[in-house]
Amino acid sequence: MTSLGVTFRSATRDDALFVAPLIYAIGRRDLDRLFTGLAPGFGPLEVVTRFYQADGGMFSWRNTELALVDGIRTGFITAYRTTSRQGSTAWLARAAAKLGARALLLLAWRGVAPARTLQRHKAGSWYIAFVGVSPDQQSLGVGSSLIERSIQS
Hints:
- The protein has about 150 residues and is of the alpha+beta class.
- The protein has helices at about 15-35, 45-55, 90-95, 100-110, 110-120, 140-150; strands spanning about 5-10, 65-70, 70-80, 125-135.
- A hairpin with a 2-residue loop joins strand 2 (about 65-70) and strand 3.
- The two termini are about 15 Å apart.
């Protein structure tokens, strides 16, 4: 059941300041390990923000929908339909390339590219990468509403 007063809208690149910190909070331990030192002058949160602003992939704004309560962003879901049985590294390569060749090499060395390439998905399945809700709005049904809406899409 949808929470009272929750509306939804597609995310934009400009939602990075809301979504990226929530993604980072959800996966901080893993993201710190993967993204620390990836590009000079960029911490893990900045890398997540760059990946969110890219056109495709598990962090992308194109795959993200926001939940709003009284018109204020309160949560998000990043999900997408897989088109093949293989994982994809194309989005990762495009986003990392913007950070420089060193970033691509470090991600490959840390095993991200091979893991994404070898990851298996049933073609046409729905993949939920992240669901996040602002701490002050948790336990009010916002996350459940996002998942329920995603399943119905």
